Amino acid sequence: MSALFTPVSIGTLTLKNRIIIAPMCQYSADEGQATDWHMFHLGSLALSGAGMLIIEATAVEPEGRITPADLGLWSDATEAALARVLKALRTYSAMPIAIQLAHAGRKASSQTPWDGGQLIPVAQGGWQTSSASAVPHSEHETPPIALDQAGLTRVKNAFVAAAIRSHKLGLDAIEVHAAHGYLLHQFLSPISNQRTDQYGGSLENRLRFPLEVFEAIRAAIPADTPVGIRISANDWVDGGWNTEQSIVFVKALEERGCAFVHVSSGGISPHQKIPVEPGYQVGFAAQIRQHTKVPVIAVGLITEAEHAESIIADGQADMVALARGILYDPHWPWHAAAKLGGTVDAPRQYWRSQPRELKALFGATSIGQR
Fold first, then answer.
1. Where are the beta strands (DSSP E) in 103-193?
2. Each residue of 262-299: b (16+ CB within 10 Å) or e?
3. 114/259 Cα distance (integer angstroms)
4. Which of 85, 108, 163, 264 is close enough to 217 for a disulfide, judged by CB 3.0 to 4.6 Å?
5. Residues paired with residue 100 on neighbouring β-strands, in sequence order
6. Per the residue annotation, which of 27, 182, 328, 350 is the catalytic one?
7. Model confidence pTM above 0.85
8. How many Å apart are CA 260 and CA 158, to the nearest integer?
9. DSSP state of 353
């Protein structure tokens, strides 16, 4: 039996297979509200047969958006817009759906990628960003404002409020975004965190605010809703956040009821040097998995079914996540199951597409006609 197509549990939630659809920003929201694009995009992915779909980085307050077109969950209007999309998904798919809650910090107020992705100045319709310290992401940018105690409380409360809305929407799990150079990662990394108070300096202090946010979310949500985290295991910059610090962070999260760890890397600095190649981040996941009982998700240029299978079979990770690869091939799990001898869920409207030689690809199906 294919290891990739065996069940796995995160907290009280059981997934039918170990393929996760990673959160992918679409930059297609209207004032934070999900649009018809999200209906098409998420609808397609919800029919893919993956074990779980994670909705893109969703800002917990307007100032936390990466771009003005980011998805958000900070108001009744943003909640209602996402509820409309989720209702359609639930009608035709039983796939578990999670959401990634995020705050971009100093990387907020950016152009969409197809417009260049650079900082939008306040004078040109952008907004003042905030961070752990008044250190800009790039040297030429306007510095962010260092969050004071009132700002820290506001951000933490925004995460909690968004988590409560997520639970109200019936989402199956929550992923806290502490990776890719965004706000919680900005507190973790000594590159961006130069504070001299209890939230900066030592590793214990740099962990403090991300752990406070995680604890507050975990306390606000019923225990049967898994809460996990996305981390950048390594900054790829000398003197930055690294795997050893990530292991300490994950152990602290485990003590606080973390249900899964989604292991990525980079994003904190334009000076990062990443050797991009297939599975370039899997080694980080494997190292972290050796030090925790929390299920670990590996991600990063995992495009071939055989590679994904080996990651699971060799014990490098408990699950694999796909992003760009599943955008390119929305039926990647079908094709992986066909190669590996697995079984995958498919909507009954598509059952007739099952190849003749793969009688069990879609499980127990029955098609008849006059």
1. 130-131, 145-146, 173-178
2. bbbbbbbbeebeeeeeebebbbbbbbbbebeebbbbbb
3. 35
4. 163
5. 57, 175
6. 182
7. yes
8. 22
9. G
CB atoms within 10 A of CB 41: 20
SS3 of 240-297:
CCCHHHHHHHHHHHHHCCCCCEEEECCCCCCCCCCCCCCCCCHHHHHHHHCCCCCCEE
Question: Any idea how long the chain is?
Answer: 370
Tally of CB atoms within 10 A around 338: 17
The answer to whether residues 142 and 65 touch, using CB atoms and an 8 Å cutoff, is no
- Written as tens digits, the pLDDT of the chain (370 aa) is 899 999 999 999 999 999 999 999 999 999 999 999 999 999 999 999 999 999 999 999 999 999 999 999 999 999 999 999 999 999 999 999 999 999 999 999 999 999 999 999 999 999 999 999 999 999 999 999 999 999 999 999 999 999 999 999 999 999 999 999 999 999 999 999 999 999 999 999 999 999 999 999 999 999 999 999 999 999 999 999 999 999 999 999 999 999 999 999 999 999 999 888 888 999 999 999 999 999 999 999 999 999 999 999 999 999 999 999 999 999 999 999 999 999 999 999 999 999 989 989 999 888 888 8
Read off the tokens for 279: 């599975």
Specify whether the CB–CB gap between 299 and 275 falls below 8 A. Answer: no
267 sits in the region (left: phi over 0; alpha: psi -120 to 50; else beta) called left
Tell me the C-alpha distance between 60 and 161, whole Å: 8
Q: Which two tokens stand for residue 366?
A: 């029955």
Burial class of residue 4 in the structure, from the number of CB atoms within 10 Å of its CB (0-12 exposed, 13-18 middle, 19+ buried): buried
CA–CA distances in Å: residue 214 to residues 14, 37, 173, 211, 275: 22, 30, 14, 5, 31
* CA distance linking residue 105 with residue 228, whole number of Å: 20
Annotation says 182 is catalytic: yes
Rounded Cα distance between 357 and 258, Å, is: 42
Handedness of CA 6, 279, 242, 183 (dihedral sign): negative
